[in-house]
Amino acid sequence: MAIVDDIKAPIEEELVKFETHFRQSMKANNPLLDRVTSYVIKRKGKQVRPMFVFLVAKMLGEVKDDTYTAASLIELLHTATLVHDDVVDDANERRGFFSVNALWKNKIAVLVGDFLLSKVLLLSIEQKQIRSLEVVARAVREMSEGELLQIEKARRLDIDEDTYFEVIRQKTASLIATCCEAGAISVQREDKADLMREFGEKIGLAFQIKDDIFDYGVSGNVGKPTGNDIREQKMTLPLIYTLNKVDKKTRAELINIVKRHHENPEKVRRAIHIVIENGGIEYAHKAMMKLKDEALSLLKEIPDSQSKKSLELLVEYTVNREK
User: What is the DSSP string of 265-281?
Assistant: First the structure.
């Protein structure tokens, strides 16, 4: 966690203040709703998304009330999507704890997600943050479209590399891109908004590829079963590369496992072995590092500062994390 502490150093005070802002933004009058949202807040992750917002804002200007609002809007959206995703995926756990739907059932989980999305709308209107709302609303649309595109393609297993990148650009990268763009907008740096969006998008793509690699059990411990993506019939970059590289017989075997034997542990292990043996992990790692380098090159024109250094550290952490 030492590297995370180094990353947070220039924005430590802002993150502490943000926690108060965020808790306030999730307040509810309904006792059940308040109980569920309190449970969700207590199990939040490493604050990676707020860190992107505040580091970009501080790198480009002075953190303002608008920055706290922007970070709250994005964290509300992110929390809502996690709650809804657990319902969609029928998941009983989130970060090692019971999911909302596991404790309170699907109906309540969906309604809590809806409540959080309503808070995004209300907070942006109350704070007159229409520009930030525009950016966040675009992320909602893209994340939904990405999820649907992935479901559609998973049924036919015909996803190519271009489609894969479009799926993860919408599903994962759009939210990191939104963090960076909103950070710039919050300090009135519209001149850097597109640049920061592009920067965030590349980091988001790299972030997802790292998760793809984790699923093959070749690095770290992510708290989910190895081969989980194969079990869920998700076409990730290591698998797509391998399907395009191997001979027809091996390709047919891989497709057969993903289509018909994805719940058989022995078959899943066989698929993992094929992907690793044929360089799927190395290929994905190279693609991830290329995206990281491209993202960092976009920061070259920004003057050096402690916030910029921390943002660069956050990029490195994204591709080098162990879980």
Answer: HHHHHHHHHHHHHTTHH
pLDDT at 321 over 90: no
Q: How far apart are CA 263 and CA 27, in angstroms?
A: 41
Identify whether the C-beta of residue 223 lies closer than 8 Å to the C-beta of residue 96. Answer: yes
Residue whose pair of structure tokens reads 């939904």 in the numeric block: 144
Q: What span, in angstroms and rounded, lies between the C-alpha atoms of 159 and 48?
A: 29
| Least confident among 156-160, 206-210, 216-220, 227-231 | 216-220
**What's the CA gap between 301 and 194, in Å, rounded?**
14
Domains annotated for the chain, with CATH where assigned, are 2-304+312-320 (1.10.600.10)
Nearest alpha-carbon partner for 73 in 120, 115, 32, 117: 120
Q: What are the tens digits of pLDDT across the range 190-216?
A: 999 999 999 999 999 999 999 899 888
Residues 299, 315: Cα–Cα separation, whole Å: 11
pLDDT at 112: 81
Helix extents (H) in the chain: 2-8, 12-25, 31-42, 48-60, 65-88, 100-126, 130-156, 161-168, 174-186, 193-214, 228-231, 237-245, 248-260, 265-277, 280-297, 306-320
pTM of the model: 0.87
Residue type at position 38? S
